[in-house]
Amino acid sequence: MALPALKLPKTGTKAPAFKTVNQHGETVELKGLKGKKVVLYFYPKAMTPGCTTQACGIRDTKADFDARNTVVLGISPDAPARLVKFIEKENLNFDLLSDEDHQIAEKYGVWALKKFMGKEYVGIHRLTFIIDEEGKLAHIIEKVKTKTHHEDVLAILDSL
Question: Domain 36-159 adopts which CATH fold?
């Protein structure tokens, strides 16, 4: 069986629509965020070291994102209950979205073959999509560095 490879949407095109729930079970839709920039970052699993580093960087610079009319949304295959624990444990101040059936990850092309310690499996690739106020993909970060992710995204937002 051929395993899926990374197949990303193109910048300049309309971002794939999505509708899912956040950590509180509240519905979040991309179309409801029109008029704001959206940073949609995919991460493999809540409460793991890299994902925690990445989320805490965003937490600590939330005012900088707010000043740029930007909503940050983290998305993973975690259930809402796990997202609540992650938010409470790390005192996160932004929404995390649940994509348990990985339908959104598939739309964005980040549910694909991965390799870890010699094993191959299908899972979430850590990528970030920056969506403009009109709902178009303005930028894709394919090589995310968890320690500097927040700084990298802010620099890209300033360059757009």
Answer: Glutaredoxin (3.40.30)
Residue 43 one-letter amino acid = Y
The pTM (predicted TM-score) of the whole model is 0.93
Q: CA-based diameter of the chain, in Å? A: 47
Which residues are the active-site residues?
51
- Strand-pair category, 111-116 with 96-98: unpaired
Q: Which amino acid is at 152?
A: D
Residue 123 burial by Cβ neighbours in a 10 Å radius (0-12, 13-18, 19+): middle
pLDDT in tens, the chain (160 residues): 444 557 899 999 999 999 999 999 999 999 999 999 999 999 999 999 999 999 999 999 999 999 999 999 999 999 999 999 999 999 999 999 999 999 999 999 999 888 878 888 888 999 999 999 999 999 999 999 999 999 999 999 999 9
How far the first Cα of the chain sits from its last, in Å, is: 41
